[in-house]
Write a structure and sequence with these properties.
about 350 residues, alpha+beta, 2-methylcitrate dehydratase PrpD, 60s Ribosomal Protein L30, Chain: A, 3 domains, four-stranded mixed β-sheet
Length: about 350
Protein backbone atom coordinates (compact mmCIF):
# COMPACT_ATOMS: atom_id res chain seq x y z
CA UNK A 1 0.00 0.00 0.00
CA UNK A 2 2.80 2.45 0.83
CA UNK A 3 4.87 2.38 -2.40
CA UNK A 4 2.05 3.39 -4.78
CA UNK A 5 0.85 6.06 -2.36
CA UNK A 6 4.35 7.50 -2.09
CA UNK A 7 4.83 7.34 -5.86
CA UNK A 8 1.60 9.20 -6.65
CA UNK A 9 2.16 11.72 -3.86
CA UNK A 10 5.60 12.50 -5.28
CA UNK A 11 4.37 12.63 -8.87
CA UNK A 12 1.56 15.03 -8.00
CA UNK A 13 3.45 17.08 -5.41
CA UNK A 14 0.86 16.17 -2.78
CA UNK A 15 1.23 17.54 0.73
CA UNK A 16 2.50 15.49 3.63
CA UNK A 17 -0.94 15.73 5.22
CA UNK A 18 -2.58 14.33 2.08
CA UNK A 19 -0.11 11.43 2.10
CA UNK A 20 -0.92 10.64 5.74
CA UNK A 21 -4.65 10.62 4.97
CA UNK A 22 -4.03 8.30 2.02
CA UNK A 23 -1.94 5.93 4.13
CA UNK A 24 -4.66 5.84 6.79
CA UNK A 25 -7.31 5.11 4.15
CA UNK A 26 -5.22 2.37 2.59
CA UNK A 27 -4.37 0.67 5.88
CA UNK A 28 -7.96 0.79 7.12
CA UNK A 29 -9.26 -0.57 3.82
CA UNK A 30 -6.73 -3.40 3.71
CA UNK A 31 -7.46 -4.54 7.24
CA UNK A 32 -11.24 -4.30 7.00
CA UNK A 33 -11.38 -6.24 3.74
CA UNK A 34 -9.20 -8.83 5.45
CA UNK A 35 -11.63 -9.02 8.39
CA UNK A 36 -14.46 -9.66 5.95
CA UNK A 37 -12.61 -12.62 4.48
CA UNK A 38 -13.06 -14.71 7.65
CA UNK A 39 -9.32 -15.36 7.86
CA UNK A 40 -9.37 -18.95 9.19
CA UNK A 41 -11.50 -20.06 6.23
CA UNK A 42 -9.41 -17.99 3.84
CA UNK A 43 -6.15 -19.46 5.20
CA UNK A 44 -7.55 -23.00 5.14
CA UNK A 45 -7.88 -22.65 1.38
CA UNK A 46 -4.20 -21.76 1.10
CA UNK A 47 -4.45 -18.07 0.21
CA UNK A 48 -1.69 -15.63 1.20
CA UNK A 49 -3.01 -12.25 2.35
CA UNK A 50 -0.64 -9.62 0.88
CA UNK A 51 -1.33 -10.44 -2.75
CA UNK A 52 -5.05 -10.89 -2.19
CA UNK A 53 -6.07 -7.97 0.03
CA UNK A 54 -3.06 -5.72 -0.65
CA UNK A 55 -4.37 -4.47 -4.03
CA UNK A 56 -7.48 -3.03 -2.35
CA UNK A 57 -5.48 -0.99 0.15
CA UNK A 58 -3.13 0.26 -2.54
CA UNK A 59 -6.07 1.31 -4.72
CA UNK A 60 -7.73 3.06 -1.75
CA UNK A 61 -4.56 5.02 -0.96
CA UNK A 62 -4.11 6.16 -4.54
CA UNK A 63 -7.81 6.98 -4.80
CA UNK A 64 -7.54 9.17 -1.72
CA UNK A 65 -4.67 11.13 -3.23
CA UNK A 66 -6.46 11.51 -6.55
CA UNK A 67 -9.75 12.58 -4.96
CA UNK A 68 -11.86 9.71 -6.31
CA UNK A 69 -15.62 9.82 -5.90
CA UNK A 70 -17.50 6.71 -4.71
CA UNK A 71 -18.14 5.43 -8.22
CA UNK A 72 -14.46 5.59 -9.16
CA UNK A 73 -13.42 3.91 -5.91
CA UNK A 74 -15.88 1.09 -6.61
CA UNK A 75 -14.38 0.57 -10.07
CA UNK A 76 -10.89 0.60 -8.57
CA UNK A 77 -11.87 -2.09 -6.07
CA UNK A 78 -13.36 -4.22 -8.84
CA UNK A 79 -10.10 -3.96 -10.77
CA UNK A 80 -8.05 -4.61 -7.64
CA UNK A 81 -10.01 -7.75 -6.85
CA UNK A 82 -9.61 -9.05 -10.37
CA UNK A 83 -5.86 -9.10 -9.75
CA UNK A 84 -5.98 -10.52 -6.22
CA UNK A 85 -3.78 -13.62 -6.01
CA UNK A 86 -1.06 -15.49 -4.17
CA UNK A 87 -1.06 -18.73 -2.18
CA UNK A 88 1.00 -20.38 0.53
CA UNK A 89 2.37 -22.80 -2.03
CA UNK A 90 5.05 -20.11 -2.37
CA UNK A 91 6.02 -20.39 1.32
CA UNK A 92 9.72 -20.97 1.85
CA UNK A 93 10.68 -19.05 -1.29
CA UNK A 94 11.14 -15.34 -2.11
CA UNK A 95 7.88 -15.53 -4.09
CA UNK A 96 5.96 -14.69 -0.92
CA UNK A 97 7.61 -11.26 -1.12
CA UNK A 98 6.64 -11.05 -4.78
CA UNK A 99 3.02 -11.26 -3.60
CA UNK A 100 3.53 -8.00 -1.71
CA UNK A 101 5.21 -6.28 -4.65
CA UNK A 102 2.56 -7.51 -7.03
CA UNK A 103 -0.17 -6.38 -4.65
CA UNK A 104 1.26 -2.86 -4.70
CA UNK A 105 1.48 -2.78 -8.49
CA UNK A 106 -1.99 -4.27 -8.91
CA UNK A 107 -3.55 -1.64 -6.66
CA UNK A 108 -1.77 1.17 -8.49
CA UNK A 109 -2.89 -0.17 -11.87
CA UNK A 110 -6.44 -0.61 -10.60
CA UNK A 111 -6.67 3.00 -9.42
CA UNK A 112 -5.16 4.50 -12.57
CA UNK A 113 -7.43 2.44 -14.85
CA UNK A 114 -10.49 3.32 -12.78
CA UNK A 115 -9.61 6.99 -13.13
CA UNK A 116 -9.70 6.48 -16.91
CA UNK A 117 -13.27 5.11 -16.68
CA UNK A 118 -12.25 1.46 -17.19
CA UNK A 119 -15.39 -0.51 -16.36
CA UNK A 120 -15.42 -3.02 -13.50
CA UNK A 121 -18.04 -4.61 -11.27
CA UNK A 122 -19.14 -2.76 -8.14
CA UNK A 123 -19.86 -6.06 -6.33
CA UNK A 124 -16.50 -7.74 -6.54
CA UNK A 125 -16.38 -8.58 -2.84
CA UNK A 126 -19.87 -10.02 -2.47
CA UNK A 127 -20.91 -11.24 -5.92
CA UNK A 128 -22.56 -14.67 -5.61
CA UNK A 129 -20.72 -15.98 -8.64
CA UNK A 130 -16.98 -15.33 -8.27
CA UNK A 131 -17.02 -12.65 -5.59
CA UNK A 132 -13.88 -12.49 -3.48
CA UNK A 133 -15.59 -13.60 -0.28
CA UNK A 134 -17.51 -16.40 -1.95
CA UNK A 135 -14.55 -17.75 -3.89
CA UNK A 136 -11.77 -17.25 -1.36
CA UNK A 137 -13.58 -17.92 1.93
CA UNK A 138 -16.97 -19.61 1.39
CA UNK A 139 -18.91 -16.38 1.82
CA UNK A 140 -16.72 -14.63 4.36
CA UNK A 141 -18.11 -12.12 6.83
CA UNK A 142 -18.94 -9.05 4.70
CA UNK A 143 -20.71 -7.34 7.60
CA UNK A 144 -17.33 -7.07 9.39
CA UNK A 145 -15.99 -4.72 6.71
CA UNK A 146 -18.11 -1.75 7.75
CA UNK A 147 -18.81 -2.72 11.36
CA UNK A 148 -18.56 0.47 13.48
CA UNK A 149 -16.84 2.27 10.61
CA UNK A 150 -16.28 5.85 11.72
CA UNK A 151 -16.34 4.89 15.42
CA UNK A 152 -13.73 2.12 15.61
CA UNK A 153 -10.51 2.29 13.62
CA UNK A 154 -8.42 -0.78 12.85
CA UNK A 155 -5.48 1.55 12.26
CA UNK A 156 -5.29 2.10 16.02
CA UNK A 157 -4.12 -1.51 16.31
CA UNK A 158 -1.22 -1.15 13.90
CA UNK A 159 1.94 -3.14 14.63
CA UNK A 160 5.47 -2.26 13.56
CA UNK A 161 8.06 -4.99 13.14
CA UNK A 162 11.26 -4.17 15.02
CA UNK A 163 13.37 -6.98 13.55
CA UNK A 164 13.66 -8.37 9.99
CA UNK A 165 12.74 -11.93 11.00
CA UNK A 166 9.32 -13.26 9.99
CA UNK A 167 6.36 -11.49 11.61
CA UNK A 168 5.07 -14.69 13.23
CA UNK A 169 8.33 -15.24 15.15
CA UNK A 170 8.51 -11.71 16.52
CA UNK A 171 7.17 -13.12 19.80
CA UNK A 172 10.05 -15.58 19.97
CA UNK A 173 12.49 -12.84 19.03
CA UNK A 174 11.13 -10.58 21.78
CA UNK A 175 11.43 -13.33 24.40
CA UNK A 176 15.00 -14.08 23.32
CA UNK A 177 16.06 -10.45 23.54
CA UNK A 178 14.37 -10.16 26.94
CA UNK A 179 16.44 -13.15 28.03
CA UNK A 180 19.85 -12.13 26.69
CA UNK A 181 19.46 -8.49 27.71
CA UNK A 182 18.43 -9.33 31.26
CA UNK A 183 21.01 -12.04 31.91
CA UNK A 184 23.94 -11.17 29.59
CA UNK A 185 23.94 -14.79 28.45
CA UNK A 186 27.27 -16.29 27.37
CA UNK A 187 26.41 -18.66 24.49
CA UNK A 188 29.35 -20.90 25.41
CA UNK A 189 27.62 -21.59 28.73
CA UNK A 190 24.27 -22.53 27.16
CA UNK A 191 23.82 -26.28 26.96
CA UNK A 192 20.48 -26.07 25.17
CA UNK A 193 18.22 -23.20 24.20
CA UNK A 194 14.62 -24.41 24.03
CA UNK A 195 12.06 -22.37 22.14
CA UNK A 196 8.33 -23.07 22.48
CA UNK A 197 5.91 -21.76 19.85
CA UNK A 198 2.22 -22.13 19.08
CA UNK A 199 1.46 -25.03 16.77
CA UNK A 200 0.65 -22.71 13.87
CA UNK A 201 3.94 -20.82 14.14
CA UNK A 202 5.88 -24.03 14.74
CA UNK A 203 4.47 -25.52 11.53
CA UNK A 204 5.74 -22.48 9.60
CA UNK A 205 9.09 -21.91 11.27
CA UNK A 206 10.07 -24.89 13.38
CA UNK A 207 11.48 -27.25 10.78
CA UNK A 208 14.49 -25.37 9.46
CA UNK A 209 17.34 -26.34 11.77
CA UNK A 210 19.34 -27.08 8.62
CA UNK A 211 18.41 -24.00 6.62
CA UNK A 212 19.77 -23.69 3.09
CA UNK A 213 20.13 -20.06 2.07
CA UNK A 214 18.94 -16.54 2.82
CA UNK A 215 15.19 -17.00 2.70
CA UNK A 216 15.37 -20.16 4.76
CA UNK A 217 17.42 -18.27 7.35
CA UNK A 218 14.84 -15.45 7.45
CA UNK A 219 12.03 -17.84 8.34
CA UNK A 220 14.03 -20.31 10.44
CA UNK A 221 13.28 -20.15 14.18
CA UNK A 222 16.46 -22.17 14.76
CA UNK A 223 18.78 -19.79 12.93
CA UNK A 224 17.13 -16.62 14.27
CA UNK A 225 17.47 -17.90 17.83
CA UNK A 226 21.13 -18.80 17.24
CA UNK A 227 21.88 -15.38 15.76
CA UNK A 228 20.33 -13.57 18.73
CA UNK A 229 22.14 -15.82 21.21
CA UNK A 230 25.55 -15.25 19.64
CA UNK A 231 25.29 -11.72 18.24
CA UNK A 232 22.89 -10.08 20.73
CA UNK A 233 21.57 -8.33 17.62
CA UNK A 234 19.22 -9.04 14.73
CA UNK A 235 19.46 -6.83 11.66
CA UNK A 236 19.72 -7.57 7.97
CA UNK A 237 23.42 -8.26 8.52
CA UNK A 238 22.48 -11.46 10.35
CA UNK A 239 20.68 -12.59 7.21
CA UNK A 240 23.60 -12.17 4.84
CA UNK A 241 25.72 -15.19 3.76
CA UNK A 242 28.77 -13.97 5.66
CA UNK A 243 26.82 -14.48 8.89
CA UNK A 244 24.34 -17.30 8.33
CA UNK A 245 27.00 -19.47 6.66
CA UNK A 246 29.30 -19.16 9.66
CA UNK A 247 29.95 -22.80 10.72
CA UNK A 248 29.48 -21.91 14.38
CA UNK A 249 26.01 -20.49 13.77
CA UNK A 250 25.01 -23.38 11.52
CA UNK A 251 26.12 -25.81 14.20
CA UNK A 252 24.31 -23.84 16.91
CA UNK A 253 21.06 -23.77 14.92
CA UNK A 254 21.23 -27.53 14.41
CA UNK A 255 22.54 -28.70 17.77
CA UNK A 256 22.14 -26.01 20.41
CA UNK A 257 18.66 -24.72 19.55
CA UNK A 258 15.58 -26.84 20.15
CA UNK A 259 12.22 -25.65 18.78
CA UNK A 260 8.98 -27.31 19.79
CA UNK A 261 5.21 -26.67 19.73
CA UNK A 262 3.33 -25.87 22.91
CA UNK A 263 -0.48 -26.30 22.95
CA UNK A 264 -0.73 -23.73 25.73
CA UNK A 265 0.53 -21.01 23.38
CA UNK A 266 -1.49 -19.26 20.69
CA UNK A 267 -0.72 -16.84 17.89
CA UNK A 268 2.76 -15.37 18.19
CA UNK A 269 3.16 -16.12 21.89
CA UNK A 270 6.47 -17.78 22.76
CA UNK A 271 8.55 -19.12 25.62
CA UNK A 272 12.31 -19.63 25.76
CA UNK A 273 14.41 -21.57 28.25
CA UNK A 274 18.19 -21.52 28.38
CA UNK A 275 19.52 -24.62 30.12
CA UNK A 276 22.96 -23.55 31.31
CA UNK A 277 25.99 -25.77 31.75
CA UNK A 278 25.97 -25.02 35.51
CA UNK A 279 22.52 -26.59 35.83
CA UNK A 280 20.55 -23.35 36.10
CA UNK A 281 17.68 -22.49 33.74
CA UNK A 282 16.91 -19.00 32.51
CA UNK A 283 13.42 -18.30 31.13
CA UNK A 284 11.47 -15.63 29.30
CA UNK A 285 7.93 -15.47 27.96
CA UNK A 286 6.33 -13.19 25.39
CA UNK A 287 2.62 -12.57 25.02
CA UNK A 288 2.84 -9.41 22.90
CA UNK A 289 5.97 -8.81 20.77
CA UNK A 290 7.80 -5.52 20.81
CA UNK A 291 6.05 -3.41 18.19
CA UNK A 292 2.60 -4.98 18.65
CA UNK A 293 -0.11 -2.43 19.38
CA UNK A 294 -0.36 -3.85 22.91
CA UNK A 295 3.42 -3.35 23.31
CA UNK A 296 4.20 -0.39 21.03
CA UNK A 297 7.63 0.82 20.06
CA UNK A 298 8.81 4.17 21.32
CA UNK A 299 9.59 6.96 18.91
CA UNK A 300 13.27 6.51 19.77
CA UNK A 301 13.16 2.79 18.85
CA UNK A 302 11.59 3.57 15.49
CA UNK A 303 14.14 6.27 14.72
CA UNK A 304 17.01 3.98 15.76
CA UNK A 305 15.74 1.30 13.41
CA UNK A 306 15.77 3.82 10.57
CA UNK A 307 19.31 4.90 11.45
CA UNK A 308 20.46 1.27 11.44
CA UNK A 309 19.31 0.70 7.88
CA UNK A 310 20.21 4.16 6.61
CA UNK A 311 23.90 3.48 7.27
CA UNK A 312 25.75 3.05 4.01
CA UNK A 313 22.80 4.47 2.10
CA UNK A 314 22.48 7.97 3.55
CA UNK A 315 25.04 10.11 5.28
CA UNK A 316 24.32 10.49 9.00
CA UNK A 317 23.31 14.13 8.49
CA UNK A 318 20.93 13.13 5.68
CA UNK A 319 19.36 10.47 7.85
CA UNK A 320 18.65 13.07 10.52
CA UNK A 321 17.09 15.33 7.90
CA UNK A 322 14.79 12.52 6.85
CA UNK A 323 13.77 11.91 10.46
CA UNK A 324 13.07 15.62 10.90
CA UNK A 325 11.00 15.71 7.69
CA UNK A 326 8.91 12.71 8.78
CA UNK A 327 8.44 14.24 12.23
CA UNK A 328 6.85 17.31 10.66
CA UNK A 329 5.32 15.58 7.65
CA UNK A 330 1.93 17.22 8.21
CA UNK A 331 3.61 20.57 7.63
CA UNK A 332 5.26 19.60 4.32
CA UNK A 333 3.67 21.42 1.42
CA UNK A 334 5.00 18.74 -0.91
CA UNK A 335 6.08 15.13 -0.31
CA UNK A 336 8.84 15.78 -2.84
CA UNK A 337 10.85 17.33 -0.02
CA UNK A 338 10.98 13.93 1.67
CA UNK A 339 11.57 11.88 -1.49
CA UNK A 340 14.36 14.24 -2.56
CA UNK A 341 16.09 13.63 0.76
CA UNK A 342 15.75 9.88 0.35
CA UNK A 343 17.11 10.07 -3.18
CA UNK A 344 20.13 12.24 -2.31
CA UNK A 345 22.47 9.31 -1.74
CA UNK A 346 21.45 7.73 -5.06
CA UNK A 347 22.35 10.94 -6.87
CA UNK A 348 25.69 11.12 -5.06
CA UNK A 349 26.54 7.54 -6.05
CA UNK A 350 25.65 8.25 -9.68
CA UNK A 351 27.94 11.28 -9.70
CA UNK A 352 30.81 9.27 -8.26
CA UNK A 353 30.29 6.52 -10.81
CA UNK A 354 30.34 9.04 -13.66
Amino acid sequence: MVPPALAIAERDGASGRALLVALAAGLETTTRIGLGLDYPAFRARGWHGPGVIGPFGAAAAVGSLRGFDAETVARAFGLAGSQAAGTFAAWGTPTVKFHQCRGALSGLMAALLAEQKFLATRQFLTARDGGLYQSYAAGGKPEAVTDELGRRWELEQISLRLWPSASSIQGMTTALFDLVEKHAVDPAKVDKLRVSLSQTVYDLHGHLAEYKAKFDALISAHYTAAAILYDKALTLEQYEPARYDDPRLRRAAKEQIEVRPDPALSGVQAKVEAAMTDGSVLTAHCTHPRGAYENPLSRAQIEDKFRTYAKGVLAASQAEEVIAAVTRIEELSSVRRLTDLLRAAEAARSERAA
